[in-house]
Amino acid sequence: QVQLVESGGGLVQPGDSLTLSCTASGFTFSRYFMNWYRQAPGKERELIASISHLRVHPNYADSVNGRFTIFRDNAKERVYLQINRLTPDDTALYYCNTVIGPNSYWGQGTQVTVSS
């Protein structure tokens, strides 16, 4: 079955950088778009970055453009999200996602907390 497992979150200070990882299994990873979402306390889940199966034309939400970089390693079946210059507004649960046919699959999320 499809599984997505995020890792790399934690408690960091403002201005720090962090790279989140998502390890995929149970499907042909190299054939599908991969997405990163986040959900901050009291807010709706938002799409923040996407990357195609061919690793071209990544897309970013306006709120994170310039600080976030999505990239993938199809051989390792992993997708990453590098986050630079973290601010307290980046505090959220970060989720990996893919859509295969009519189904949307999610990991359990990894918590990022930005605080001094």
Main β-sheet description: 7 strands, mixed
Mean pLDDT: 95
Q: Can you write the helix and strand succession as a string? A: EEEEEEEEEEE
Helix-strand makeup class:
mainly beta
Radius of gyration: 13 Å
Given the structure, what is the number of helices? 0
- Distance between the ends: 40 Å
Report the principal-axis shape. globular
Helix content: under 10%
Give unreliable regions as ranges. Answer: none
β-strand amount: over 45%
Total number of β-strand segments?
A: 11
Description:
The chain is mostly beta strands. The chain is 0% helix and 52% strand. It has strands at 3-7, 10-12, 18-25, 34-39, 46-51, 59-60, 68-73, 78-83, 92-100, 103-106, 110-114. The strands form 2 sheets. Strands 2, 4, 5, 6, 9, 10 and 11 form a 7-stranded mixed beta sheet that branches. A hairpin with a 2-residue loop joins β9 (92-100) and β10. The chain is globular and about 40 Å long. 27% of the residues are buried.
List key phrases describing it.
mainly beta, 116 residues, 4-stranded antiparallel beta sheet, 7-stranded mixed beta sheet, globular
Short description:
By secondary structure, the protein is mostly beta strands. It has strands at residues 3-7, 10-12, 18-25, 34-39, 46-51, 59-60, 68-73, 78-83, 92-100, 103-106, 110-114. The model has no long low-confidence stretch (mean pLDDT 95).
